[in-house]
Prior knowledge:
The protein has helices at 2-12, 19-33, 48-60, 66-79, 87-105, 111-133, 214-221, 257-270, 291-300, 323-326, 344-356; strands at residues 141-151, 155-162, 174-178, 187-191, 201-207, 228-231, 247-253, 276-282, 304-310, 319-320, 336-343, 364-369. Helix content is 39%, strand content 21%. A hairpin with an 8-residue loop joins strand 3 (174-178) and strand 4 (187-191). By secondary structure, it is α/β, with parallel strands linked by helices. The chain has 3 domains: 2-133, Globin-like; 141-231, Translation factors (Elongation Factor Tu (Ef-tu), domain 3, Beta Barrel); 247-369, Nucleotide-binding domain of ferredoxin-NADP reductase (FNR) module (Rossmann fold, 3-Layer(aba) Sandwich), CATH 3.40.50.80. Helix 1 crosses helix 6, helix 4 (66-79) crosses helix 6 (111-133) and helix 5 (87-105) packs antiparallel against helix 6 (111-133). The protein is built from 11 helices and 12 strands. The strands form 2 sheets. A 6-stranded antiparallel beta sheet has the order 4-3-6-1-2-5. It has a 6-stranded parallel beta sheet with strand order 10-9-8-7-11-12. The longest helix has 23 residues, at 111-133. InterPro entries: Cbr1-like_FAD-bd_dom, FAD-bd_FR_type, FNR_nucleotide-bd, Globin, Globin-like_sf, Globin/Proto, MRET, OxRdtase_FAD/NAD-bd.
Amino acid sequence: xxxxxxxxxxxxxxxxxxxxxxxxxxxxxxxxxxxxxxxxxxxxxxxxxxxxxxxxxxxxxxxxxxxxxxxxxxxxxxxxxxxxxxxxxxxxxxxxxxxxxxxxxxxxxxxxxxxxxxxxxxxxxxxxxxxxxxxxxxxxxxxxxxxxxxxxxxxxxxxxxxxxxxxxxxxxxxxxxxxxxxxxxxxxxxxxxxxxxxxxxxxxxxxxxxxxxxxxxxxxxxxxxxxxxxxxxxxxxxxxxxxxxxxxxxxxxxxxxxxxxxxxxxxxxxxxxxxxxxxxxxxxxxxxxxxxxxxxxxxxxxxxxxxxxxxxxxxxxxxxxxxxxxxxxxxxxxxxxxxxxxxxxxxxxxxxxxxxxxxxxxxxxxxxxxxx
Length: 372
């Protein structure tokens, strides 16, 4: 396994700086091999390659952690049911992937790399197919938008109700979401911002800065109560360790608060002995859109504390600086279960801070909105 993992990681360095070329070659070859597959993808392919490559890379980079590898791939297979992908499609994709890797890597590619990727892809798709076959849920859920609240120019909080079938998920997980009326066959992932409930209601926090993605823009600016969305199977492991007795640290930046809010909501139902510390950061005070609701929870639950911070307003009545810096002023956090959610930059900085505080890696779970 060690040599196998080494070959995968080593060979990836030959192509990782040229993902656009890799993705372009992959899709060109894929649609040439099976033109019917084109209808499974959005009309505009921009960004689609990054997502499939991210899934492949994540899988190949975790082969030295079999337990995580197995669960991730089974969940990925369940998620890919939304694309109507079957076993024959995976075989065609494997041919296209290897052809794209060889072409992009050039002279640095060798037979050992080729065989390692061939075996890895077979193992990956076997787990994905098994995960899909074992799933009794529908490939996706139709959901009706119940409420839609704008917070400033670029942020919205919306609630939806899954129709026909309950959508099973755990606090801290995320789902893929499609707005078919605006952008059919384009899916984006969003963390669920509430704990499971009997009403099949899910809450999402969406931000769409200038020039951001189509789905987020549609959800913030054009979605209204009564609109229908589609939700895919839940994924993600930023969930509570129910057997742990350690106190909890949550660090959230911007709409990264969504899974943290869900975790806190779950804890209000089950927690009796664990102290929970939430650090919530944004650039400006108006971006701390969920702070009033968090402060109401603090008044109700004595085990909960919330520390807000702003990085670009020196007059803010609270902590100043990036949230990754603010959290280091407290602690130590070595005996806590730590949850981190936010932008890629914020997550990277917070993980470095926790590492410097010598928090054991197995006690840290994180979710990033973008590539870490």
